[in-house]
Design a protein that fits this description.
single chain, alpha+beta
């Protein structure tokens, strides 16, 4: 129950955000829901005067459709033909007293009777506010559809029956297509109606944004909750519930985290008589924990193929994510000056310095023993959701693990863009999503991507070894550059180097070229890099793959044999460059002389050759830039 308790505490710590609208990156609005409230997309908005008279009505634009509404336990989980009205805003078949009179079809009983009885109880209670009473006084007249037809929001056919769909007969009768049939996809009975109260003397807050309305229903409904029981989360006797929230990931999500529907299949019978014998959770904790979870997912959750990856802190939800690269976490990630790459110690120092901003910010806003939670959710069916992974860590421990990850699984990357759309280079670990695409290609299915992201979590948090199949797959793709575009290969190459460096952490590889490293695979990688730069220099502005790049895949499997081919293909370019190739020719000779004769063979290369290739190529390109700058200054 620890994850439920932490979600409950998160709600309590962020209660100031209740009802406050926030926007996601796609401009979709969300909020931290009050207790006993949920959201629905409204299709029709009805304006009512303070005296309980009809004022006007309009079709709600899709951009403004999301509406915060009060709900009961039964209405929040209603399905099929079950009659369970929402307390205030609801579908047309529930709120219209003249629905049947206008030809509306009902399966069993008329829903309006249940709806108006429930609304009457709220309006006549001591907790009712004037807006609730105004809406009740109007709806009890039972003439909503009549007013909507007169307002030309809804339409009837030649027999005076409510139009259920728009067809040729309706077009002949009424002309242009009404707006309601553009926003509504189902039957007209399912049109969701929200109510607002207008005043002639002052501007009132909209009903679905009014904190006074939230509090009114919460006080009213708290007196109607079920029997008390021991809450397994708080350890107190509180009104319990066995009906828990859905719509966790999005408004159409029907999967529940907690469910005890055992009328068929008999999952727990034989051990327990009732579901509460297995676990009892209070209504307050269930509501606040689920609402906090919805808010956090909308705010900062990463969703891949309906799998949710979520990291948050109880007191301050803003916490660096596990699945992100350092460029996403820190606005100005560490970048080496002068083009010279960082050493390992410098990277660790710079990453720690970059994350110290978060550490100091969190220390100032929360207590020292503040927890960080890591939660992964997914559903196998449409109705059930499970917690696949959960960890709870102290804030400092979590940030230390993050610093360690970005310092050890580190390489120099150039595939991210800044605000101006320009490519920038940064140090640190790649995002787990990018690792998945590097391993299995940009067309990898979301199912594969989310699996890789989940498998990487223990590597980041617990220091486990990287999965060999993922590292191998990235290595083989990085060794085959002709199978992808140049930008994709460069990205795959830097990610492969980061993973191989992490895998061989004890050997202390770094981005800066290690001229003292006499490892066979590292030296072969350096040779390939020099061949690539030499031919690229000879080609000038010609944009085509060099022979070193074309033969790279074969080189990784048969380095001795393939190097002969590459060496022979270099001769025309060496001749073309003349003295300009002298430094590179000397470098090839120097690298070759460092390799023992018995190791110059066709044994397949390990991932270390990619590290040598990248570091040598990076050093040569930086030297070229330095030489160009010196010539320009002279």
């Amino acid at each position: 129950m620890s994850w439920l308790l932490n979600l409950y505490q998160t709600y309590q710590a962020n209660i100031k955000h209740v009802g406050s609208l926030e926007k996601k990156h796609n401009d979709q609005k969300f909020t931290l829901l009050p207790v006993s409230h949920t959201t629905q997309n409204a299709h029709i908005e009805v304006q009512i005067t303070e005296d309980g008279e009809f004022h006007s009505a309009q079709v709600v634009d899709k951009s403004d459709a999301s509406t915060l509404i009060p709900c009961t336990e039964d209405s929040a989980s209603r399905s099929g033909s079950k009659i369970a009205p929402y307390p205030l805003h609801d579908k047309l078949s529930y709120v219209a007293g003249d629905f049947v009179a206008y030809g509306g079809e009902i399966k069993k009983e008329e829903p309006f009777a249940y709806y108006i009885k429930q609304l009457e109880a709220w309006a006549n209670s001591e907790h009712a506010v004037p807006k609730v009473k105004s809406i009740y006084r109007y709806l009890r007249k039972g003439r909503l559809i009549q007013d909507l037809v007169n307002e030309k929001v809804l339409y009837t056919d030649a027999d005076g029956r409510l139009l259920n769909k728009w067809d040729k007969k309706a077009e002949e009768l009424h002309g242009a297509r009404p707006q309601i049939f553009s926003v509504l996809t189902g039957e007209i009975a399912s049109a969701f109606v929200r109510f607002n109260v207008r005043s002639l003397t002052q501007k009132l807050t909209e009903v679905w944004k009014d904190q006074e309305m939230y509090d009114s229903f919460i006080r009213f409904y708290s007196g109607q909750l079920g029997d008390e029981d021991i809450c397994y989360v708080k350890g107190e006797r509180l009104p319990a519930t066995d009906k828990h929230a859905n719509k966790i990931r999005n408004a159409a999500d029907k999967a529940k985290l907690i469910s005890a529907n055992d009328k068929s299949g008999f999952t727990f019978r034989g051990r327990f008589q009732e579901s509460r014998d297995a676990a009892s959770i209070s209504y307050e904790v269930s509501q606040k924990a689920h609402n906090a979870l919805k808010w956090l997912i909308n705010r900062q959750g990463k969703i891949i193929d309906q799998r949710v990856f979520l990291v948050w802190s109880n007191g301050d939800p803003d916490i660096p994510g596990l699945t992100e690269d350092l460029f996403s976490i820190v606005p100005t990630p560490p970048v080496a000056k002068g083009g010279n790459p960082f050493t390992n110690k410098e990277v660790a120092r710079e990453v720690a310095k970059a994350l110290d901003g978060y550490r100091n910010q969190l220390t100032a806003s929360v207590t020292e023993d503040e927890d960080v939670n890591i939660l992964v959710l997914d559903s196998a069916t449409t109705g059930r959701m499970a917690v696949l992974y959960y960890r709870n860590l102290k804030k400092d421990d979590y940030l230390d693990k993050l610093v360690n990850w970005h310092s050890t699984c580190m390489w120099l990357h150039r595939y991210r863009k800044d605000e101006n759309g320009e490519f920038v280079q940064f140090y640190g670990a790649p995002a787990t999503k990018d690792i998945a695409y590097a391993a299995y290609g940009p067309r990898a299915s979301d199912k594969v991507v989310k699996g890789v992201m989940e498998r990487m979590l223990p590597c980041i948090l617990d220091g486990r070894n990287l999965p060999l199949d993922i590292v191998s797959s990235v290595f083989y793709r990085a060794s085959n550059p002709v199978s992808m575009e140049r930008w994709e290969w460069e990205k795959t190459l830097s990610i492969a180097c980061a993973l191989i460096r992490k895998q061989r952490e004890q050997e202390g590889f770094q981005v800066a070229l290690d001229k003292t490293n006499d490892d066979r695979d590292y030296l072969f990688g350096r040779l390939l890099a020099v061949a690539d730069v030499l031919e690229r220099r000879a080609l000038g502005g010609e944009d085509r793959a060099t022979n070193a790049i074309r033969y790279m895949n074969e080189f990784s499997r048969h380095p001795e044999r393939t190097w002969k081919t590459i060496q022979a293909s270099l001769q025309p370019y060496q001749a073309r460059l003349g003295k300009k190739a002298l430094d590179l020719n000397k470098l090839i000779d120097e690298i070759g002389s460092r390799m023992p004769l018995d190791q110059f063979n066709n044994k397949p290369l390990s991932g270390k050759y990619l590290l040598g290739f990248y570091s040598q190529r990076h050093a040569l390109y930086n030297n070229d830039k330095t030489s160009d700058a010196e010539e320009a200054s002279n």
